[in-house]
Design a protein that fits this description.
6-stranded mixed β-sheet, alpha+beta
Length: about 325
């Protein structure tokens, strides 16, 4: 089971005193649930573009990463210098730019927070990478912290959405962010397709909470037309009998890459596969990997995707590069 950031920190028996202090400060009290709402892509560089761009990559490349509040593999972000946090985030920015991904999903992505340097981590990565456009949904906000999920792209998003799940005390609020982009592989389609991409983070502590959050997400996204890509930290391994992921995958609308594989772990030295990329049935996986990059206590996940039934030369042209 994944125990992320402060939740992992607070769960350790030796830290009960600090946990009591957090409770006294109201950090783990029930938060107000946020309804779905439209939010803007916040990057100034992105807003300078008059019209939404079109991605023209032959294959759509995507990456998901739990950022661990910029602490990399340190014990807790509260105990590191702001300069260290910035250096860690620069490593993430470099990795993402080097990956060549078209779309990026982030979790544990901080706004200005006392516990992680008092600056916006998503804006930092956006400004220091190849992704000037971002959506940042901040689901958990208290005195010490302000964080959530995010999406990055080189082209503006449309139909941006943030959604915070019903509160689940004593754990911090979780939720998802969504945006849409237009994609025309190599410009070979008569019209671009609209792809909806989602970054999600589910509760770490209880299956019943994760199940409820999955049900909320499915209800909110019921009218979203495919293609759809859902990426993030599900805190759930599909091979386990009590997996919240099964409610999504077994419905037949989404598929995952090699669900039974034990070689694609993303947490605790690869022993747990908690970070996933799910795609609707009109998309196919072409490649899928878990890069061994030390950017967080989670490993990133990267995949390239094709449209089902589209000309094989799209795939051939990409693989021959």
């Amino acid at each position: 089971m994944s125990v992320n950031n402060a939740e992992e920190f607070l769960a350790k028996p030796l830290m009960l005193l600090l946990k009591s202090l957090f409770i006294a400060l109201g950090l783990l009290t029930t938060q107000i649930a946020c309804a779905a709402q439209n939010i803007p892509s916040s990057s100034s560089a992105c807003s300078k573009q008059d019209q939404p761009g079109i991605l023209t990559s032959p294959l759509l490349s995507v990456v998901t990463l739990n950022m661990a509040h910029g602490r990399k593999d340190a014990f807790n972000q509260m105990f590191q210098k702001t300069s260290t946090t910035r250096a860690n985030l620069q490593d993430i920015s470099n990795f993402l730019s080097d990956s060549g991904a078209d779309l990026v999903a982030l979790q544990e992505a901080d706004g200005p927070s006392r516990w992680s340097g008092k600056f916006d981590h998503v804006e930092f990565v956006s400004e220091n990478s190849a992704y000037p456009c971002n959506i940042h949904a901040r689901h958990a906000k208290k005195y010490m912290y302000d964080f959530g999920t995010a999406l990055l792209s080189s082209v503006p998003f449309t139909n941006e959405l943030e959604y915070t799940f019903e509160p689940s005390p004593p754990t911090t609020n979780k939720g998802f962010s969504m945006g849409q982009v237009r994609w025309n592989p190599d410009g070979r389609l008569p019209e671009p397709v609209t792809v909806s991409v989602i970054s999600v983070h589910l509760d770490f502590s209880r299956k019943k909470v994760r199940d409820a959050q999955v049900a909320e997400m499915r209800a909110v996204l019921a009218d979203v037309e495919p293609p759809v890509i859902i990426m993030g930290d599900f805190n759930s391994d599909l091979t386990k009998e009590r997996s919240a992921l099964k409610a999504i995958v077994e419905g037949g609308l989404f598929k995952v890459y090699k669900p039974e594989s034990t070689l694609l772990g993303t947490y605790k030295s690869g022993t747990h596969r908690l970070d996933w990329i799910l795609i609707s049935n009109d998309l196919d996986f072409v490649t899928y990997e878990v890069p061994q990059a030390i950017l967080s206590d989670h490993q990133p996940v990267q995949a390239t995707l094709s449209l089902v039934g589209k000309p094989n030369e799209l795939l051939d042209s990409k693989l021959s590069e």
